[in-house]
Predict the 3D structure of the following.
Amino acid sequence: DERGYLKHLLSELEKALKKGKKYGKINRVEGNLVEIDKGAIHKVHDRDVYIVYDSSERYKGKIEIGAIADAISIGRSYEVKKGRKIEPGDEVKYRGQRKIFEIGLLLFTKSESLIMGERYHGGFAFVYKYNLRGGLGFEVIVGFLINDTYTFNELETDRRFCYPFGIRKYFNYPHWFSPYTGVGFSYFSGKYETPNIVDKVYKTNVYPYMNIGIQLTAASLHFDIGVMYFHGPVVKFAGETLRERPLIGYGSISMTW
């Protein structure tokens, strides 16, 4: 009867809500558009990413959600394994949500082997990131990662590495634990002179850098821990050879959207 049917529907709805959005199944597929059996009532959000598996739990691909109804969602498939077509009935597992923008504070410390021995110093800068689907992202760091002056014997130096900009590749993305690597360029300016200013050398150019680290996710916050290597110039001046190639350790915290 009608009352029994409504009870059955309520029972099925309660079961679905208890399962939440973490696990689900594919209802239908049209090209790269995929419908899953999870929706707003399961707290699915825009840009949620699901991993697709077959009945044998073999990886097939990923789905990023772009449209959400009450009990279903539709997304686009990507990174589909060659020879493994996504089909109705395949299982999906929630991986995480892609965040487009990140704005945060980066704290760093650096150690250098200079001609006068080891030097340790640190500071902070602001970091801006833009993340694409598939784990590729862009970053811009606004600040001076090296900005110092030192004197040794008859040599005075004033050098700066600043405003790095580059790309990142995240692995295991999006997830609460995502290793990454990146490359880019940074502006460098250096002035080298002797006290009597008889000799003077200026170095100004853009030099490459690379970084590697891990990103940890908690709600709307991202925490990064990593190292950054700057491949700056080799400066020969006043009988000395300076290699401007610092290694910087850093940590950052970012708000995400």
